[in-house]
Hints:
The chain is of the alpha/beta class. Helix content is 34%, strand content 19%. The chain has 2 domains: 4-79 and 203-285, HAD superfamily/HAD-like (Rossmann fold), CATH 3.40.50.1000; 84-199, 2-Layer Sandwich (Hypothetical Protein, Haloacid Dehalogenase-like Hydrolase, Chain: A, domain 2), CATH 3.30.1240.10. A 7-stranded mixed sheet has the order 5-4-3-2-1-12-13. The chain has a 6-stranded mixed sheet with strand order 8-7-6-9-11-10, covered by helices on one side. The N and C termini lie close together (12 Å). The relative contact order is 0.18.
Amino acid sequence: xxxxxxxxxxxxxxxxxxxxxxxxxxxxxxxxxxxxxxxxxxxxxxxxxxxxxxxxxxxxxxxxxxxxxxxxxxxxxxxxxxxxxxxxxxxxxxxxxxxxxxxxxxxxxxxxxxxxxxxxxxxxxxxxxxxxxxxxxxxxxxxxxxxxxxxxxxxxxxxxxxxxxxxxxxxxxxxxxxxxxxxxxxxxxxxxxxxxxxxxxxxxxxxxxxxxxxxxxxxxxxxxxxxxxxxxxxxxxxxxxxxxxxxxxxxxxxxxxxxxxxxxxxxxxxxxxxxxxxxxxxxxxx
Length: 286
């Protein structure tokens, strides 16, 4: 019986406009009322599900590709920091990169606000500009601090480093650096030109498994949903894994199961179908 549903956001649980809507929220509310846990599993960083558009629903948040786990009410349950010596070397080796360094107490950016914004280009297609605006919503919240020096950044417990690199040569150099430091770093990005660097061993799958254990659930009592590169380890790890129809071929292979499109609420519909099939939890299982 599935007791924990863990869902990626963009292209998965969110709709085609990269946001929640009444159909999504209603189904999650019903799942929680049926005694299940529903968690977000995202590369984004957020203190709570509320910040991600889920209102007051009591959901867990696995964010920063697993570097942070928050409980309902924005309660920090776990964070995994990047080795400070390796982080310092990364910052010093690539002084022109606009690294965004995420810690429990905020987001610290080496570049300016404009440099940071320039890294988030509009997706292509008819709805590209609209989608980009929605994805950038809250991009420069009050938790962002710009113009940070290496020493400024190292004064915080940095758990994730983001950077979009437009120059192919520089991109190759950063990629090589991460590969050479595989004992302390890993990059799991949904997009080839965007680096999403965390401590080695940190990924969505490991974090969701940690959350399941904390809740007292076995891994075969977890269902996971994803669509892209930073979901692969999670999709490969769990027996009950599902990729959306619009997901990458790699995600579909990793999951082994393909459901419908996020545009038609495939994930929340699948969650409710699973609950209807399995029935309510016994009182001592909730």
